[in-house]
Design a protein that fits this description.
alpha+beta; 5-stranded mixed β-sheet; 5 strands; 28% strand
Length: 177
C-alpha cells in the first residue's frame, strides 16, 4: 500500500514540476517525442541506410495520412539518389514560426549539412512541435516532420527556396516537379 502512495506522489510531483506535456510524452510515447539530437541522429542514420520506412515514421501522423506513407517512402527514395555514403554531418535548429496567445502550431526549421563521399548536401527539415489548439489528440497527430528538402551544395539556397515555393509535398529535391 505504501508503494502505491509513493508512486502516486511521484507522479503528482513530476506533473507539478515538469508540466503536463512531459507526462503526456511518457503516457503516449512516440518516435517523434524525443529530443532534437536523438531525432536528428536517427534521421541521418535512416538517410545513410536508406531506411525510408523508418524515416517516414518520423513524419507527423496527419502528414502521413494526407499523402500516404508509401508515397512519402517512394519520394524519399528519389530524393536520396546521388546522396552517397554519409561521412559526417552538422545540425542546428533554425528559426521558429510560432503563434501568439498560447494555442496553435510551432514549426522549427532544422538545417543539416551532410558530407558524403559524393559531395556536400543540405537537408532542411520542418519539424512541428504539434498543434495544441485542438486538444491532446490533435497535438499527437501533428507532432513530427512536415517537410524534408534534400539539395546538393551546388544549388543556390535562394534559388532552391523559390523553385519549391509552389511545391506542396512533404519531400522536396531538385528533380521534384
Amino acid at each position: 500500500m505504501n508503494k502505491f502512495f509513493l508512486i502516486v506522489g511521484l507522479i503528482v510531483t513530476t506533473t507539478l514540476f515538469s508540466g503536463c506535456r512531459q507526462v503526456e510524452r511518457i503516457i503516449y510515447p512516440t518516435k517523434r517525442s524525443y529530443n532534437f539530437n536523438h531525432v536528428v541522429d536517427k534521421i541521418v542514420e535512416d538517410l545513410d541506410r536508406r531506411d525510408n520506412k523508418d524515416l517516414a515514421s518520423y513524419y507527423a501522423a496527419d502528414v502521413r495520412e494526407k499523402y500516404g506513407k508509401s508515397r512519402i517512402v517512394e519520394e524519399l527514395k528519389n530524393a536520396e539518389r546521388g546522396l552517397g555514403k554519409i561521412e559526417s554531418y552538422r545540425a542546428k535548429e533554425g528559426g521558429k514560426s510560432g503563434h501568439r496567445g498560447g494555442l496553435g502550431e510551432t514549426v522549427i526549421c532544422w538545417e543539416l549539412t551532410i558530407q558524403t563521399n559524393s559531395g556536400e548536401y543540405h537537408v532542411y527539415i520542418n519539424w512541428s512541435e504539434g498543434d495544441n489548439s485542438g486538444g491532446d489528440q490533435r497535438l499527437r497527430e501533428t507532432e513530427g516532420i512536415e517537410r524534408i528538402g534534400i539539395y546538393p551544395e551546388k544549388m543556390d539556397k535562394f534559388d532552391t527556396k523559390e523553385q519549391f515555393a509552389d511545391v506542396n509535398f512533404p519531400v522536396q529535391y531538385p528533380a521534384k516537379e
